[in-house]
Amino acid sequence: MNSIPPSAVADELPLLNLEPLRDALGGDEAFLSHLLERFAKDLEQILPALDRATFEDDLSAARELVHKVKGSAGDLGAMRLRAASQSFEMELAQGVFLPASLDSFSKAVHSLRAALDARTG
Amino acid sequence: MADVSVLVADDNEINRDILAYQLKKLGYSVLAAENGQQVLDCLLAQRIDVILMDLRMPVMDGLEACRRIKAWVLDGTLSSPVPVIAMTGSLTEEVHAEAQAAGVSAVLSKPYNSERLGGMLAAVLNPTGSSHE
After folding, report:
1. What is the DSSP string of B19-82?
2. Which pLDDT tens digits describe chain A residue by residue (121 residues)?
3. Which of A67, A75, A90 has the highest number of chain B CBs within 10 A, making it the mutation to test binding with B?
4. Global pTM?
5. What's the ipTM?
6. Residues of chain A in Cβ contact (below 8 Å) with chain B
């Protein structure tokens, strides 16, 4: 039986599902937007930092970076990025770095950044 | 409820802020820590009524912090137990068992809304019924 790569599963997920966060914040749209803007700024830094960590073969640092993104993505409803982060983090935790996973992660970051940019206009 | 101090321990600033927002809306007084070591430091410095703890954090993770809190209660460093609610985005039986063994009072799986959060805090602060999900 052929297994489905995690990146393919991640690609099926919605980029952004804000309903659980909206529910958690009791519909406070201003605070929700503030959180998304902060996350967008964090995402600007993540790929260069991750490139540095993997170039230096510092998989522990790479794992910490991906773990942080996974946490924020999960709470904010960035489902595709959360899924890409989760599989990537698991590999890094096992001391495995697969460039294909970095590509999937980067793709999810770029897609989300585009969606967040479109949201703020 | 502002006299009930909740310590939020999470290495992720955005997650801490979301939780702090919800807790303040529920009327709790909120303190924050970025790792398990800061949780322990905070417990020695001031009164904490309940801790909401992420399980995976740098420096000292949530499970290790829970084990040390449990030991502090046994050796008298802490005069009374401080309930800990562990927060996780991937709740498995293994995580649940590990958390229980470390002394966690309850496990809150994500996502959660204010109603679930408030209900769990009330159950842990007034433990007359079951507090595990």
Report:
1. HHHHHHHHT-EEEEESSHHHHHHHHHHS--SEEEEES--SSS-HHHHHHHHHHHHHHTSSSS--
2. 444 455 556 677 888 999 989 988 888 999 999 999 999 999 999 999 999 999 999 999 999 999 999 999 999 999 999 999 999 999 999 999 999 999 999 999 999 999 998 887 6
3. A75
4. 0.84
5. 0.81
6. 20-21, 23-26, 28, 31, 35, 38-39, 42, 64, 67-68, 70-72, 74-76, 82, 86
